[in-house]
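Exercise 3.2. Students should predict the tertiary structure of the chain below and write it as structure tokens, then compare their answer with the key that follows.

Predict this chain's 3D structure.
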Amino acid sequence: MHLRRPPLREESTRSSKKRYSMKIGIIGAGFIGGTLTRRLTELGHEVRVSNSRAPETLSELAAETGATAVWANEAARDADLVIVSIPQKNTPDLAAGIVDARKPGAPVIETNNYYPQQRDGKIEAIENGTPESVWVSEHIGAPVYKVFNGIYWKHLLKKGVPAGAEGRIALPIAGDDADGKKIVFGIVDELGFDPVDAGPLAESWRQQPGTPVYGKDFGVDDTLAALKEASPERTPEWRAA
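Answer key:
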């Protein structure tokens, strides 16, 4: 198990600042995808956002934020970062190679949760122990980083605060590539949250629904403690009936 506090850096003692403007592709414009579109454009990033329908259906979000509404298979084009935020059951419906047009080495964040009783129905591989984000990674054919899956969207929208502020919420990040994780850490910090290294993607079950960290607004220490307490066994509420 590899769980780490955020690195102690000079900027952690002052307000988070945007490092540079990134091209970000977002696939999914629901509560989390829409919120990230709003926050990231507000921070000055160039966002291309899509849903499962035509770009015209996102005209209001585009007008509000300045994001560019595109077809889903165009969202990742030349992106520095891609975010996939869709219902878990819809993952197999994504076009083959949907994130392949991103820049080489650009990380892919996935924010999904498996809700078998509430929305998604039974997904056999996940029921049999495959971590949710590993399952997503296998379907889209790219490594992913799990983050933003356990925070209420209104808190993601409103509760980001400068680094060092009292009560800053910590968000766990699971993923394998250290260079990509640095980029994801930077985005989380810029959005106003403390990034916490939650280990490799194989251990991303530590932040799935039903775990001690899920849905909580913990700080760094409590987030690390909750990740350590997690069990890979799904609780009854989060298993298929």
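Discussion points: The longest strand covers residues 23-27. Residues 178-190 form the longest helix (13 residues).
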